Amino acid sequence: MRPSHIAPRPDFPPPASAPPPLRLLVADDNPVVRAGLTALLSGRTDTTVVAEASDGREAYEAALRHRPDVILLDVRMPGVDGISALPHLVRLAPVMMLTYSHETETVREALRLGAGGYLVHGEFTTEQLVRAVRDVREGRPHVTPGAARALLTSLREGAPAHELSNTPELMADSPPSTLSQLQPSVGQSFRSRFRLSTREAEIMDFIASGMSNQQIAAACFISEKTVKNHINRIFAKLQTTTRSQATAKWLGVA
């Protein structure tokens, strides 16, 4: 005999919703870098930029207003620089240093003052940046090879050899296999390898800041057709096919 009733099926839990995007504050005195990072990180589902700042004081005020999950902080900025602002900012949110500077003293001082990580432009991809930001929020430090090398040099100069075996924790979450190739010359901008002309570099900066062809033409006093010709040559040199790909390479996050 069939049972008089069929037991109801157990309710399956609803699918887990995606976590809210990480809310980031970008502090850098270079408007091109700020605009490029904002465009890259706000165009994703897992991160968004809630505020920008051009120096340490603006970063502190913006952090008070917006309460970001993580602060991306440059080192050298006019007014209040990143190192000076760092002790105040770490009280408000985890801080990731994101800069072109990898001098030994700067790296050591930033980490001593509470930075949760130290990333050097040109040594990471967008995905690695996002992973590092998430890890820093959870208290897991990240450094890219240039910063790690500077830190290791400092440790070797100031500690006996037998103590060095206990120091690589900062490097553990950034294995060399997951990091982009180191640049051949520490003192030379990684952008020089693209071999853009002065005009092409200027236009690439405009592209990274989010300007349209029409806006670039007006800023450079050239025709839109000339802008398009420059962009075609830029894409060929950067080995990209879209503005977002070119921007990522130009900012050192691809």
UniProtKB/TrEMBL annotation:
Q: Which residues carry this modification: 4-aspartylphosphate?
A: D74
Key words of the record? DNA-binding, Phosphoprotein
What taxonomic lineage is listed for the species of origin? Bacteria, Bacillati, Actinomycetota, Actinomycetes, Kitasatosporales
- PANTHER family associated with the record: TWO-COMPONENT RESPONSE REGULATOR (PTHR43214)
Q: Which residues form the HTH luxR-type domain?
A: 189-254
One family from Pfam that matches here is: GerE
User: What are the boundaries of the region Disordered?
Assistant: 1-20
Q: What is this protein called?
A: Response regulator transcription factor
Domain (Response regulatory): give its ranges. 23-136
Coiled-coil residues: none
Residue ranges with Pro residues bias: 10-20
